[in-house]
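Many introductory courses stop at the sequence. We go one step further.
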Amino acid sequence: MRVLQVSTWDTACGIADYTSSLRTALEASGVECEVWAIDRTETKYLSRAELTEYFSDLAQTAATGYDVVHVQHEFSFFAGEYGVRTSVDNLALVLQRLQRAHVPTVITCHTHPAAALPRRLRRLHRAMLMYFRARLRVPVARGNVQVIAHNRLTRRALLDFGLAPNRVHVIPIGVKTSEPPSDVQRAEAKRSLGFSALSTVLGMFGFVVPHKGHVAALEALALLPETYCLVIVGSAHPHGTSSAVNDILRWLDEHPAVAPRVRLAGWVERDEMQRYVDAVDVHLAPYQTEPVLSASAAVAAAVGSGRPVVASNIPAFEELNTEADCLWLTTPDAPHELQWRIEQLLKSDERRKSLLANGETYAAENSWAVTAGKHKALYESLLAR
């Protein structure tokens, strides 16, 4: 079986990393995978007409010589520097060309549809919903097309868009499984990174963007004993314009007594990233309620790391926890509660062991090998039609 993955690639992007992990696991299962890389640096400078030509070329390439085309979808991938309507038009163009060529197609929706609209434009939601339906429902319904959502929350939103239930499948983000570091390895990781052996290291990983709640984590840290420290590993999104990093720096400047307990590591190489993961005692994900989150690769990785995770009680994490009970949930934008949750978790051996055991089970049930198997089965079902 020969599959073309349409995605960002070999760049600082969570979906590029996702596609890389999926491709590796699929090839291990005997599926030949190639990648048509969406170059966001190039598309940024294209006019609408040039974007249409760019995605026409994509469709022409994808329609030749592949058994299945798998689109890793995020709205900005198809928009260039334009808006949601342009994104939807370009995706519809690709789907219609593939449909005419009778190429089986899979679309993974990496973002919740509501996230495509800024909060200030939610009043336009009904109009945009009708536009999405008009442009995308027909090519999906009439073609040999299946859609993947990472959770039931996103699946429900896609059904609200008018997609048929038998077209939408839930396949969670794959989890990298590995043996958690021993106490000796953890102590060595802390020492090599300059942390005291007696310190409790809280960690946040991934792009530094406003909805991840870094300032709430900083405010919780200020309420914790001085033996606690926070490491933030990641940089601003290369295609974003948020002030999240500046907000962290401003907070540190305004709280000089706490600043020495914070490590803003920025982007680091893979080996150093692993040392930070090994050194962490508790992962934090105090995400905000906006934008509506489909899923989080950073949280999936944290669950698979063998360390406990304190996360916000937002819908995506609530669903995960209802199914797996692998997170210690707290209210978004509530630093005092976050501080209390962290301390309560570390005081409760029973709760901590339960979270870790459940996290290990979840990671095994959603390893990349298992995830690739589900994708392969979906591809085969398309080819059998």
